[in-house]
Structures are given as C-alpha cells and as structure tokens.
Amino acid sequence: MQFMLLFSRQGKLRLQKWYVPLSDKERKKISRDLVQTILARKPKMCSFLEWRDLKIVYKRYASLYFCCAVEDQDNELITLEIIHRYVELLDKYFGSVCELDIIFNFEKAYFILDEFLLGGEAQETSKKNVLKAIEQADLLQEVRIFLYHQIHLL
Amino acid sequence: MALKIVKGSIDRMFDKNLQDLVRGIRNHKEDEAKYISTCIDEIKQELKQDNIAVKANAVCKLTYLQMLGYDVSWAAFNIVEVMSSSKFTYKRIGYLAASQCFHESTDVIMLTTNQIRKDLSSPNQYDTGVALTGLSCFVTPDLARDLANDIMTLMSHTKPYIRKKAVLIMYKVFLKYPESLRPAFPRLKEKLEDPDPGVQSAAVNVICELARRNPKNYLSLAPLFFKLMTSSTNNWVLIKIIKLFGALTPLEPRLGKKLIEPLTNLIHSTSAMSLLYECVNTVYIDVNTPPLPSLSLSLCLYLSLPPQLCVQKLRILIEDSDQNLKYLGLLAMSKILKTHPKSVQSHKDLILQCLDDKDESIRLRALDLLYGMVSKKNLMEIVKKLMLHVDKAEGTTYRDELLTKIIDICSQSNYQYITNFEWYISILVELTRLEGTRHGHLIASQMLDVAIRVKAIRGFAVAQMATLLDNAHLLTGNMQRMGICEVLYAAAWICGEFSEHLENPMQTLEAMLRPKVATLPGHIQAVYVQNAAKLFATVLKSQEGNTDSTAAQETSQLMIDRLPLFVQSANLEVQERASCILQLVKYIQKLQQKDVEVAEEVSALFAGELNPVAPKAQKKVPVPEGLDLDSWINEPPSESESEDEQPKAIFAKEEPKHSRPRREEVDEKELAKRREARKQEQANNPFYIKASPSSQKVYQEAPGVEHIPVVQIDLSVPLKVPGLPMSDQYVKLEEERRQKERAEKKKKEKKKRKEKRSGRGKKHDSGPESEEDITPAHQVDIVTEEMPEKSSKHKKKKQKKEKEEKEKKKKKKHHHHHHHSDGGGEEAVQNGTVEEEEPLPVSVFFCFLPLTKVYDIQGNLQDGSQVVVSVIFENKCDSFLKSMEFNVLDSLNSKLQRPEGSGPHDGLTVPFQLPPGVSNEARFVFTVQSIIMPQKLKGTLTFIVKDSSTHEKLDFKLHFTCTSYLITTPCYSDAFAKLLESGDLKCSSVRLEGVNMPFHHLLARICFHHHFSVVERIDSCASMYSRSIQGHHVCLLVKVSAQTVSIDAKCDEPTLLGNVLDEIKQTFSQC
User: Fold this and answer.
1) Number of domains in chain B
2) What's the pTM?
3) B328–A107 CB contact, under 8 Å
C-alpha cells in the first residue's frame, strides 16, 4: 500500500498515512486531486478507480471516506478488507465510532492504524491481537479519551 | 526543583490541549487561518519551556496542524526532543509526529540514530514497537545502514509482537540499503516457519514483495511456500503466496504443473472472493504477461479446462449484485480476453447486460470488453444493442463514449468484421440523429472512407447522403447540434463526387443551394459550392438528352440565382469557389441561349474517377517511352550555369549581398516559425526534391558552409508580406534543387521543367501523398486497385535511391547522437550500413572467461577524423563485475579520445557495472589521422570481480579495417559516370576465384560487409560506390563469369583502394 487517506464528505482530511517517501508538496497535491476525484463519484459506483499508475480503493462509512492507494499488482478486494478491518478496529476501540472520535482523538486513530499496518503491509490479521496491543500500550499512558456519540460509522 | 514541576503543571492547566485546539478550529470557521496562526504562536511559546509534558502537548497539536496542511518542519528538533523522552506517553507522541512530518530530506533525522537504537533495545516491548513503527515511515538510507543490525537482532526477539514488526520493517530497510539483504536473508527465511502466525505472515509478506522485484533469487524457496500454501488457512497469507507463485512460475515452468491441484482446489472451495479473484488473476493474468506469454498456454493445458473454469468463476463475480465484484470480474475478463478470446465470447449476453448497469465505470469496462469480443457473426447484434443504449443513455459523455466505441468496433482492423456495408452506412446515418455529440467529424470521416473505398456501396451511400442533405435543417436545427453538422461535409462531397448514382440530382442540387446553407461553417459551405457544381454538370447532362431544352436553362438560372449568396460569404474559400463557378455558369448560360450543347464539356470539368491511392502508388506509374525527365526543355540560363561552376563563391557572394542588412528586420521567432512551416510544406509536397545525399559531400569538402544555405533563405524573406513566404518557398525549392545539381557534378538538367514541376507541386499541396505522408490505410483498401507494376529499371533504381537516402538520414542522426536508437542493430543489418561485428580473437579468452565483447566501428560523418567504436560487454561469469576500465595503447595515427585533463595513458572508466549474465554497451571515440591503412590497436580492460575483490585484466585488439572508414553513400548513375570520366581516380583490380553464390548475394555481401551501394546493375555486372569518412570516392565494377568474379576498382587514394580490395578478397575467401 502506498498511502491511506481519511477524509470527510466536505473534503476535509481527517487522517493521512504515507508509506512512500514523498515531499509535503507532492502529498498535498495528491490528496487534493484524489479527494476531488472521489467526491465527484456517484454513490452507487464501485469502489475502485485507476488513478495515475495506481489503483485507488475507497469506501464510504457514514460521513467519512476511507481511501487507499495500492500498486497495480495488488488485490483490490483485500485492500477493501483492510479498510473494513480498520473501521472495525476503530469501532471496537472507541465503542461505536463516529467521525468526531477520530477528529478529537486523531492520535489514537494513528496508533491503531500503526498496530494494524506497518510500512503499508498488514502486520496483524487478528483483531484481538491489535486491540490487546493498543490497550496495553494505553495502560502505560495516562489516558484521556473523549467520546463523541453522533453518527456512527458502523 | 519541586516548585518548578508544580509551576509547570499549573501552567499546563491553562494550555490548550489537542481537543481544545480542534474545538477552537471548528468554532473559528470564518477566520481559521488567523486562529491557527495565533495557535502556532502559542505552540512556539510552549516549545520553549523545559517541561516535556508541555512540549509533547505542543508537538501533538502540531501533528494535527500538519495534517491540515500547515508547515511544521521548523519544529523538527522539538519533535526529536519529545521522541527521546523516557516516558512512553510522550515518546509515543514524538514518534507519531516524526512519522507524519519527517521525510528523507529532514536534517535532524541524523540526530535520531542513537535514540532509536536505544529504544529498539529497550526492555519495554512497546518502546521498541513504537520506534519500529516510526522508523518504518521515515527510514533513510543512513538510518537503514546504521540500524540494520539492530533490527536484524530483533527478528529473533522473544516476543512475537516485536518479531513481526522487525520482519516487516526489514523490507523497508532492504529497499533503502540493499546490502543488508544478504546477511539478513537466512533469518528472514527462518521466520517463514515461525511458530507465531503473525510473524509467519509478515515473513511471507516481505518475501513476496521482494520476489515481485526480483523473482529469480527466490526460486529456491518454492517448496517451502508450496508447503505453506497447502497448509495455511489464512486468506491474507494465501493471497500473498499465490502472488509469489505468479512471479515465480514464469521462471520455472515445472512449478505450474505442481500448482494445478492446489489452485484448482482453492478456486473451487474458497468462499473468499478476494482469494478467488487473486487465483484467477494470478494464473491467467500475471503469468500471461511477458516475458513468457506462451507459458500461460501450457499452464492452462495443465489445468483441466481452465479458461472455462475461470471465466465461469468470473461470471459469478459479474453476476453478483456487488458493484465491486462486477467491476473486478469485468476487469479480469478483459485481461483473459487477450489470451483466450473464445472462452470470453460465450459470455457476451452477460457483458451486454452490464451496459445497463447504473455505474458508469462498469459500463465503460463492459464497452472495452465488447471491443475485443466482436466477430463477423455477432458484430451487428452487438452494435444493435449499443445503438439501443445510445438512445437510452443519459449524459453526453457516456453517449459520446458509446458513439466512439461503436465506430471503433466497426472500423477496427480495417472493417474486418463488417460484412454488410449498407448496414454500416445506415448505422452512421442513425448516429447523426444523436443530440449534442461532439463527434460529427468522426462520423463524417467514416462516411467518406467507406463511400470512397467500398465501390459497391456508393449507390446506397449516395442515396442516404442525399436524404441527409435534404433533411439538413434537422441537423442544424439548434445550436447544440453544431458538432454534428460536420457530417454534411461528407454528405455533400459524396453526393457531388458520385452524383451519377443520384436518383434525383436536381432535388439534391436544390437542397445544396438552400439559403440556410449559409449558416453552416465555412469549410462545409466550400464543399457545398464545389459539389453543387459537380451536380450541376450531372443535371445538365441528363437534361440535355431530353428534348426540352428549357429545363437545362432553368437549372443554370437556379445556379445563377443562388450562387451570389455564397459569393458574399465572409469565408475566402467559399467566396472564391462561388465566384469562379458563378462566372462559369453565366458563360454556360450564354452558350445555352445559343443552343449550344455544353453538357459534355461541363462534365469534362469533373471527369475522371477518384480512386483510393496507395501511398506508394506514384512510383508505379511508368515513365512514358521517349520522355526523359532529366533532359532540358530549353537551354539553361547562362547565369545560373556560372553560379553552378563556383559553388563556394555563390555563398560568399550572396550572404553579404542581401541577407545581412535585412537580418535585423526578422526576429528569431518568426524565422523559426517560417522554417518550421517550410519543413512542413516540404514534407507534404510530393514534388519537393529532398536534398540529394551527394550534396553532403559538397558540405564536407567545404566545412562550415553547410548551414549557409538555410540561413540565406531565411533572410531573404525579410518583409512580412503575406504573398512573400510563398515565393520564398519557391526560392528555397530552387536552391535545394541547385544544390543537388551542383552535387551531381554540375549535371545539366531540365531547369524549366523542374520549375514547372515544383510550381505545380506547390499548388497541389493536398495532392498525392509523399512517402512519409501516409494517410488512408492503403494496405487496408477494400477496393484497392493497385496500379500495374510496370516499373522500368530506371524507376526501380530511383526508388532504391530514395530509400537509401532516407536510411542515410536516419544514420546520420544515429551518428550524431552517439547512441543506439531503438532496434538500431537490426536496422543496420537491414540497411547494410556501417556496423560491423567481429568477435575478439579467441586467444583473449583463455586467461579468464568472465567477459565477452563484441565491437562495432563506425566512422563519424560529422568529422572526417573521428571513429566511434561501440563495445558490447557481456558478463558471462557468475560474479558481479565492477570498476571496469577501458584502455587502448594509442598509435601515432589513432588515439583514443580521453576527457580533458587526463593523461595519454589513462584508461576510460566504463560507466556501468555488470551483474552476471548482463550485457551493456559503451562507446569510445577515436581520432584517426590517416584512414588509408588498416590498423590494430592493443588495449586492456581491467575490472574487479566483486567476490574476490581482485583486479583482473583482459587484453584485446581492436582491428580498424579500411572498410570501417567507408560509409554507404548512394550515388546516381550519371554522377557515377562523371566521376569515372573525371580521370582523377586511380585504377586497381582484383580477381576472386571459386566464388559460388548468386550474383545478388555477392552484391549484398559487398554492400553489407564493406558499406557499398549498388549504383547500377545490368545482368551479371554491377557498379558500386562508397565514400570514406574523409571524402575519398571508391568505385567498383563487379563482373561475374562462371565462378570468377573480377572487380575493377577506382579510387582517388590507391593505398586505401588496395586495402579495401584486400578486405573484400578476405571476406570472400572465408565463405
């Protein structure tokens, strides 16, 4: 996987993770282009598109779009599964996750992502293991999580 | 100290934390930028404090701002500070910030090495974990090099949590620091059998990614993966393994056989679509891609009826209600289509169904598939379906896409699948009813193409076009449909040109002269006017046959009434054509009033059928007997003759005469533009005579003069009067022609005739195509009426010469750029030009066998003293070769060109390294003073074999034959004759006995090996010509009788000639 972006229906970036070294300028340009392209697609359209030399896999959960860029030989369906798995993890961690949870606890969202993917590859396919690792790491930290229950992603 | 801590935490209570920042930003939607800039100021203050908690909070906020697109690179050092905190809470934030904000060019990364190393060896596995995660995002080559060992140790950590992270990050390390792969590989391999499934899957992941880059090195792991594949139940792992096999199988076909069973099992049993998709994709697609496309076939043969199996599985995907599966199914299907069209074609129904899908991306995929699926049998059916969709389709983009696809599908491979052209014409006519399409011109060009090329269809086409013209108002009704009116261009032209097929030409004529036509775009009106005249001729012809002569007069009157509308047109083309035709018709009317029969003469204006012409047809026209194109019609003007005699003087004289004072008047841009336009004009002008190759000789003999003609011509057009550029081109043409004359040894030519020819050529810009200008698909012609091939000997020769001329140009470019153009080698062989391949003397290889070399020697046309030697190095041993140095012992005559500053005995570094089995080419330039003698240069190549790190040496000899100084140069027979007559050349001859080969083989051999070109060949006697890089002429007369070949040769340099002849002799003694 080359990168993952989370953005809202208004096109606001909520999370970005880059697994390839790119300058800030390039990153900004890519995310701007991609957000526009995806938001322009109709709701009933399929989740895949070819964009430059990459394959883009995206899925919308409530107000949030999850978007991954993978290489040509990569499997679109498994990427879709990765996205879904990540949303499930967020959901389990926050307990009925909504967009605001991710906005206000964005660092937590990153920590979960980092336990799930490393360098763009899935490192742990067991949900239980990911959550266990996060919980234990959290134990080492004075935790203050603010939960916002609004529109739930799942 | 205690007070300080208390003070710190009190301060902190008033700081904004991340949540406050986010909330603040949300509350300041109007002046977000302003709010954030105050926040950044606060953060800067916070970063100045000693309290690490405050700093961490500030860094956390910065990470958020970074995501919003603000530059936070200024805080890089603070991030490092937070990273090195001993508390996990802050360390975690620090590493997160680093992984988001750092990239390879961040300087402070250098400072982190020791901190990261410390964290990696921390007793707390989460410290280690966080460091590994962070590192995966910002690892640089330096970090990779310094930390590779630490990470490698972590691969055997007691905790699987660390092991799997370490394994995954090793991939990033390998990418940044490839040297680490070799030592780490055994351990990585070991991890494939790790007891923890997470670690195992991480190892599979990494090896799969590595294998995708370089499959060869991982073949040995195949059995291990095979075991994993049959035992694993984890779909994530299985997908990776299948991908890996997809990369390995092309290298080891036997693997395919072994894979059949497990793969078929998986395809049948799995419920996971992602896995199924991967199986299908890998087996049928990845394997099908080069380098071994044939392999896919064998793999398919192994699998029982596999294309069907896969296509059926894909069918399930496509039939699924999930858009995503549908899309992927179609995508995979289109890839299989390339290799197994038959098995896909049977699912036409399904793909047609997809055209109804609400998702446009799916519809477009289905359209792509249809393009490859059509056959003669199903074309009409498919197009009929598509036509239905055109009607239903909403949104012009998709409809336009459909339209172009229909035309693409029908016209593909030269209308291969169309069995009934009446049908196709009706489809095209139907398409014109499409609203708001932009593709009118596309339909128009198809109409023209079909009507012209398919003779049998003309009657039908004309009838359809007449209807179109009649209903033209429907097409031009509203402004939105302007795109479609392009078809009227085609309709008018077809009706006019093939008017004999019209049932009611009068009606069509009237339709073409309606006042409404004046609203059409100018280029269409112009066609209308011209074709109205054609129709007029046809109408007159039919009416004059009748007894009633008034009808014909009425027709003329109609023309006279309607044409003035066009005479007033703002479009010059329309205006000009209309006034010409109006005057013509007025004259005809006068004649008609005198009861003169005019129809015959009027139709003679447009007589002669227009046939499709193959681009090369012109050459097949035989020159009429007794016509000598090269003789003068009139005596040449004496003035130009005197010019001809002093070619240099003309440049010297003329340049100052009229070019210099005017120089300032024309700016560079304008010049460039004109130059470009002129080149274009020349390229399109079939009558333009390209500079003869022999003119190059003139340039060469007067170095530095070569650019002058161009400059001179540019400057002779100083005024920006619209009429002038034309005449300028005239001048240019004339100039070029003169150059050619000069080059051909002042041969007298038929100047008047030439002028006439070039003049005519200019008017007929759009006339028959020149060779470069390949327009209608000639080989594709359906009614191709190839002209009879009656080419006389003379013509053939000319063709050949032209070809050679072109090749020559190519070659020149070749030399100039000093690199091989695509397929350069092949080209050289075909052309029989300079390249020469000789393996080095065998003795060289006895000492050490890692290298073979092949070299070519090429003379450099640009510089008579330069020879380019291309050496191909091929590494035949198993080790990596590097630091190659090429050195040659210079002789008095030949010197290797070395870069400035290096001594005369220094070697040249070969600019590449050679992995085993790889070959690469390097070029070396030699300066040669005298070329009349062959010579051998001794040289050495030194290199280092990677594993042994010792210097190795390879001696070789470079053999510069005299032949390598010759350049294939075409020569006209008359110029050749002049050359022989001139008496400047010395004679020599040689006899070859026992040559047993056909004469043309013999000639080809001389051409190929010795860079000659055939000037003329009569029976078993041929004259040949070549020129050295220093301008020596070499002429051969080759005769063969029985098995004896005698070569009489003339050259202005007897030594060179002797050597060349010796070399020719040697060539034939070897066979």
Assistant:
1) 3
2) 0.57
3) no
